[in-house]
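Batch 3, record 17
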Amino acid sequence: GAVVSQHPSRVICKSGTSVKIECRSLDFQATTMFWYRQFPKKSLMLMATSNEGSKATYEQGVEKDKFLINHASLTLSTLTVTSAHPEDSSFYICSARRPQEDTGELFFGEGSRLTVL
Amino acid sequence: GQNIDQPTEMTATEGAIVQINCTYQTSGFNGLFWYQQHAGEAPTFLSYNVLDGLEEKGRFSSFLSRSKGYSYLLLKELQMKDSASYLCAFMDSNYQLIWGAGTKLIIKP
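Prediction for the assembled complex:
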């Protein structure tokens, strides 16, 4: 079964509104979660690394005031797209790694498809 | 610098074998991953290689040569459901994943 769950899977919103996406690790505590964005037919682009209890680390070119990340507990990280615009329409995916696991396997959430009208 | 490269698209026939290559350049290396991604879905883990050689897992095998900066994913007995994008990624010295652009595999009957 899924070990990382993401919600909602699809969201449509009006331009100017904010949208929150949740990412939960279901059977382990994730001190670190990763948020990706994926454009059609493109690879995953790391947006930020979410750290429990501290500020997220954003990749170059990603606006931290635009994409607010909160990692308030060891099983939950949220990404809020503020004042969304049509160009923010994309597939957003979170992932987490089991702590102390040698394979380094990343478990991905189901993804959230955001459409901004 | 760092870079990673894989073919954009490949086509194969149901029941056949296909090999998807991935080449990379990096000064620090902590393993290479292959993920499968169906359209509109999140990626799913296929394999992880950190040592040279071939790792076999059912119909899928993954190979790594660290000295050549080269990996391949081998898919046998292809099924229509194998039509997907296949992403390779290496983990650098900072344990960051550097992703390839993905190879779209089209399976024909």
